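User: Sequence in, structure out. Go.
Assistant: Echoing your sequence, followed by the structure tokens.
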Amino acid sequence: MNVTLILLVVLCNITCLRASRILVSLFAIDLGAEQYVIGLMIALYALFPALLAVYSGRLSDRIGPRLPMIAGSAGLVAGLLIPYVWPTMPALCVSAALFGMSFIFYHVSVQNLLGTISSDGNRTRNFSNYSLMIAAGGFLGPLSAGFSIDHAGYRETYLYLALTALVPLVLLATSAGLRSAAPKLKSPAAARDEARATSNLLRHRPLRSPLIGSAAVLTGTDLFQFYMPIYGHSIGLSASQSGFVLSVVGIAAFVVRIGMPALVRRTGEAALLAWSLFLGAAAFVVFPLFKDVAVLTGFAFLLGLSLGCGQPLSTILIYANSPAGRTGEALGLRLALNNATHVLIPLMAGSIGSVFGIGPVFWINAMMLAGGGTLVRRASA
């Protein structure tokens, strides 16, 4: 399977993921859900990834990424069809749980596949192109979902996304190149490593800094995708306007990732990761203080520069510093830490938001990013 085909799969699936986040938040509001219920539903997106991320990484290391990617992509299609067939709050909760569980098997495996088929000479370029597809999906997903909600409705938007998610499933199921491009990775050394406690990876000093930074970046990204539409609804923005603000994050991420190699040469990976976290914290602090869509778009662009830079940096650092034979497990641990935070913070934020409003939710994100930046900076000193 060539890199171009992998990147097409990534673009389709990440577009569906980003679109589903604005869709589920606004649909839940339309169904009359309280903020603490929405917080619970958002936590369901991350519950199974938190429990299964490390296992999915080990599975990818042991049997290769093909079957986990196919099974995960099939689950995405099913998760998007459930609210179309059954447009209720319980269906949204089931969809969120299934979508999260399916995406983690696909997500860890596609990163491991990309690293496996890359050489030392083109790994950074391939991961950079991968991150550009993530950014492009971050633009296309919210924008298309917002316009579809306003013009077609919530149920129909779920159907359109399910059809989009069907494309990667067909490509993965019919690609003969996927078998030859990604041989099974299990070896005697890898098997012995797998038997060791995953906690040993946390003791692997080169991994600590990128793991800390990644948890902060990914949690901040995910929660902004969920809570910005809620904030937009509270100040009278339409679904299209909220989708546009979210899409600007994707545009900024795309821009910063094009210039990221030059920034890395100037500052180094760890220092750039720390400063990107500080910039994101500042954007989160001021975001809920404004209601004008143009101003919110400007701060969303700053947030996209921050989070868009942090994601590929942490992924590259984790892959490069993983012990031999455990790259998938390390990538899974990265997502497990992120999703464990992602389970707890929405529950806390939903309760706080019900009492104090949506602003404190953004400020919790700001504190998390600032703390992550501080830890990354100290660890790399």
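User: And one key feature?
Assistant: The first helix runs from residue 3 to 30.
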